[in-house]
Amino acid sequence: MNEMEELYREIILDHNKRPRNFRKMEDCTHHADGHNPLCGDEIEVFVKIEDGRIADISFQGEGCAISKSSASLMTSALKGKTLEEAHREAGIVISMLTGKGATADVEELGDIAALQGVRQFPARVKCATLSWHALEASLKGEAGTSTE
Amino acid sequence: MTFLKEEVEHFVHPPIGGTYTVATQTHTFDIEAVRGDFPLIMREALRKPPLSYLDNAASTQKPQTVIDALSNFYSQDYANIHRGVHFLSQRATDLYDKARETVRRFLNARESAECIFLRGATEGVNLVANCYAKPLLCRPGANIVITTMEHHADIVPWQLAMEDTGAQLRVVPIDGRGVLDEEAFEKLVDENTVIVGLSYVSNVLGTVNPAERLIAAAHAKGVPVLLDAAQAAPHVALDVQQLGCDLLVISGHKIYGPTGIGILYGRREILEKMPPWQGGGDMILHVSFAGTTYKGIPDRFEAGTPHIAGAMGIAAAMNYIERIGIGAIAAHEHELLEYANAAVTDIAQLRVIGTAPGKAGVLSFVIDGVHPHDIGTFLDADGVAIRAGHHCAEPLMKHLGLPGTARASFGMYNTFEEIDRFAASIRKIVKFFL
């Protein structure tokens, strides 16, 4: 695999072309904007919590292949998870992306592990973490977050 | 190199380093000699893949003569200026004055006192917004006129100055090619316009605005113009008297000079009307606790110890540009732009943003279905440095309905081979993502 194939793995290209859960959610219980003022990426995350579980999760916005596929992968992975599981997963993903993650934890991520190539591209790490930070902000009840 | 032979062979290189005839001047432009003057360009050309530095609108690389000017000043001539009776201080002061004279010559200002050393073009706009515009913005109906193509440094300083004044920011529209609507300009500028803030060359679209005509139109209504020539200075010969501009800003780092140094030019009459910018040493005549009197121009706008070495550096950069010849540089960059346009014109998914006639060496583009950042990262892996994003011109991007663009921008040391690598990488991107 060359450098670009390492970064843009098949799964990432697929989620970029056909983003999952790419829609606005009218009846969400939580939502937040993720904004990267440096590049202009904007991702809006919508979450519906029922009985401590993520009953539905979706996103909207404009961004590069990395930020879009990361958001798409996130929504695919977290639907049906408990809040506790979601927080844990977000923690593992952010650690993986920023280079602090233990390999053992990354293995349990499934498709999301495809994002680990991003670590080699410091300028792109914030693209990948954007939706995850927006998710955390929404669950904390904050209106938005900004990665810079 | 990784690009495919058949992808590049149909671009026949125009003769490189030939003689360009421009207006009345004839310069021999020797691209190999020019490249040899830039140590970073020479060194990075040896790496694999070789660097193609096509991000000159963001900042330019430095020729050895500029690097030497900084180094020599610190190793041989350094002292503070305007302060000591000792010979070193006198010598540093003389060199600083000489650098200002070089700036005067580069801009064809009437006198060197009209050229203020600041940190850069951005500081110049902020100075004018605060010291010239702000006191006038409280008048009823006051407005400032800018254009859709302005970047943030030509928007935000005016907005800050306008806060709580009730003044209006008027924006002159552009057409689909990125050409300014001159009729709208004439309508929007009126007797209540405090100042016009105008980019000479757009950093995103490459549009070269008809500055002389627009300035004359503003003057016909008694309105002064601040011309942001930061992007123009490396491509266009600047002559403030011919342009008739009242105020003009440039940045050192965009004309192959150091960062942290730039110029505000102002006509004496207009600068003398302006209150000081920052208070401190070097800008005062007498200080007492009851009150202080200020020096005349340029000192009153240069409080504290300035970037003296930066002044040496920007003067060296101007001397260098004059030696190579701005006309020859412009002609070379024009050929590069034409060549780059031709190299990507058959890529159906690629759309060039900014097609104004006679534009400067900037190629902004989008590829449908590939985000500019992904283009930038992919090109980088092939050694091609470009800028991707909103280019500090968010309102313009909004106007264009784009999240951003990818932008290749050319400098005097760029070659056709570098553009071949750029175009080959773009073809790979299209195959990879689409």
Topology:
The complex is a heterodimer of chains A (148) and B (434).
Chain A: H1 3-7, H2 10-17, E1 30-36, E2 41-50, E3 53-62, H3 65-78, H4 83-97, H5 103-107, H6 125-139, E4 144-146
Parallel strand pairs in A: 1-4
Antiparallel strand pairs in A: 1-2, 2-3
Helix pairs in contact in A: 2-3, 3-6, 4-6
Chain B: H1 5-8, E1 19-22, E2 25-28, H2 31-36, H3 39-44, E3 52-53, H4 64-77, H5 87-107, E4 115-118, H6 121-133, E5 143-147, H7 156-162, E6 168-172, H8 182-188, E7 193-199, H9 211-219, E8 225-228, H10 240-243, E9 247-251, E10 262-266, H11 268-273, E11 284-288, E12 291-294, H12 308-324, H13 326-344, E13 350-353, E14 362-367, H14 372-381, E15 384-385, E16 387-389, H15 394-400, E17 405-409, H16 416-433
Parallel strand pairs in B: 3-15, 5-6, 5-7, 7-8, 8-9
Antiparallel strand pairs in B: 1-2, 4-10, 9-10, 11-12, 13-14, 14-17, 16-17
